[in-house]
Amino acid sequence: MSNGVTPVYSLRELVIYFLRLGTLGFGGPVALVGYMHRDLVEHRRWISDEDYKEGLALAQLAPGPLAAQLAIYLGYVHYGILGATLVGIAFVLPSFLMVVALGWAYVHFEGLPGMQAVFYGVGAAVIGIIAISTHKLANKSLGQDWLLWGIFGVSAGLTVWTEDENMWLFLGAGTLVWLVKAPPRTRFLTTKAVAAPAFGLLAQVSTTSLPVNLTSLALFFAKAGAFVFGSGLAIVPFLYSGVVKEYGWLNEQQFLDAVAVAMITPGPVVITVGFIGYLVEGFPGACVAALGTFLPCYLLTVLPAPYFRRYGKLPALKAFVEGVTAAAVGAIAGAVVILGLRSLTDGFAIGLALLSGLLLWRFKKLPEPYLILGAAVLGVLIKAFQP
Questions:
Q1: Mean pLDDT for the chain?
Q2: C-alpha triplet 12, 13, 18: angle, nearest 5°
Q3: What gap in Å lies between CA 201 and CA 175, rounded to an integer?
Q4: How far is it, in rounded angstroms, from Cα 141 to Cα 147?
Q5: In the chain, how long is the greatest CA-to-CA distance?
Q6: What is the secondary structure of 143-205 as a DSSP string?
Q7: Residue 228 per-residue DSSP state
Q8: Residue stretches of the chain with pLDDT short of 70
Q9: Which residues span the membrane (predicted)?
Q10: How far is CA 269 from the centre of its chain?
Q11: CB-based contact 355:362 (threshold 8 Å)
Q12: Do 297 and 225 form a contact (C-beta atoms < 8 A)?
């Protein structure tokens, strides 16, 4: 139990809450963490504001999907490892089953013009949605800090130039901000500093020569789960560089469709890995991709949790988080540029992307699923009247 306080809710009630949130929670990572604060801290008062903020800070510090890690931490607060495990499964399972079903439909009906037309419209809208999400993340995370904006610009530029995501840039950015804002005065090492050498060894493992099978999928998605910082959207550039550029498992249109699937389903955005895994190796591939992605973030949330509750307020850790977050948001911005240049190939697609972005800019509370649905209808209409 947290600080010896008896929880006012049962583990069953918490699991049911996250099962519902995973089934109906649209809007991406920022919205999902907002729902958790509104429901669990403000309304139900199951979680203290201090525990919530500690969990959010750890989720920002550790690699992996932000919303899923916060959910896992909140499960840990009063019910330890069992609570973290059951909450994590409940939060991820509904959207995983949805993307697997969509993957089956995509594989079996891809040749139908209607399916292609739907993804034509949705794929264009996704570009606008990610662009606006990146803008919100940047303003919220970077504020007026010139150093963080500088890191953002460098990260975005390098992502566009190399079409790749470099985890050493993230670690370097965190270290730079740490040294500038909270230079070390003791021998204390951050979680990332301790883990970096071990992660670096895994990062050098290459499966380029391996055939497409469950082993290579597991290795790649384990790296995705271990090295992707920031919100769930941060996994987009990493997946693009591996799935499309390095291994060629999917073409660019299929990858954009995979991102679109993540946008039209509730729960964590990173669940798109299940869709990608299904396209590559069927249902076993979906399971391996999801497990490979979520297991590292689960371990990197649960294992340091008791220590983070003790040391999480140290200025060095907070500064490191700021630097990593700035680099992660920059990588997302770079991925938006790459995907936009490659996928918006005609005037209608460009118009849909711009319209989606403008609508989200003008109507800040517009639910993204409604926007996706409208884009799908427009996509079908455009394709129907094209020669």
A1: 80
A2: 100
A3: 19
A4: 12
A5: 69
A6: TT-HHHHHHHHHHHHHHHHHSS--HHHHHHHHHHHHHHHS---SS---HHHHHHHHHHHHHT-
A7: -
A8: 1-5, 26-28, 30-31, 110-116, 164-167, 185-212, 227-234, 263, 312-313, 387
A9: 14-35, 79-105, 117-134, 146-161, 194-214, 220-243, 255-277, 283-307, 319-341
A10: 5
A11: no
A12: yes
Tokens at residue 304, please? 């340091």
> 92 by DSSP, 3-state: which?
helix
What length is written for the chain? 387
DSSP H or E stretch at residue 378 = helix 368-385
Structure-block tokens of residue 234: 């941060």
Provide CB contacts within 8 A for 346, sequence distance 6+.
Answer: none
Q: How far is CA 291 from the centre of its chain?
A: 15
- With vertex at residue 334, the alpha carbon angle to CA 233 and CA 159, rounded to the nearest 5 degrees, is 110
Amino acid 138 reads A
Cβ pair 228, 234 in contact under 8 A: yes
Please give the single-letter amino acid code of residue 305. A
- pLDDT tens digit sequence for 271-310: 889 999 999 999 999 999 999 999 988 998 999 888 877 7
Q: How many Å separate Cα 147 from the centre of its chain? A: 24
Helices H / strands E in the chain, number of each? 16, 0
Q: What is the pLDDT of residues 69-83, one digit of tens each?
A: 999 999 999 999 999
What is the C-alpha end-to-end distance of the chain, expressed in Å? 65
Q: Which helix (H) or strand (E) holds 286?
A: helix 272-302
What tokens appear for 162 in the block?
């190399």
For 342-377, the DSSP string reads HH--SHHHHHHHHHHHHHHHH-TT--HHHHHHHHHH
| CA–CA gap between residue 216 and residue 211 (Å, rounded) | 7
Contact at 8 Å (CB) between 27 and 372? no
């899923």: which residue's tokens?
A: 68
Please name which of 99, 37, 144 lies closest in space to residue 289, comparing C-alpha atoms.
Answer: 99
Please give the Cα distance from 306 to 328 (Å, whole number).
26
Q: Is 173 exposed, middle or buried (0-12, 13-18, 19+ CB in 10 A)?
A: buried
- Residues 26 and 262: their CA atoms lie apart, in Å, by 10
Cβ proximity of 312 and 319 under 8 Å: no
CA pair distance 156, 148, nearest whole angstrom:
12
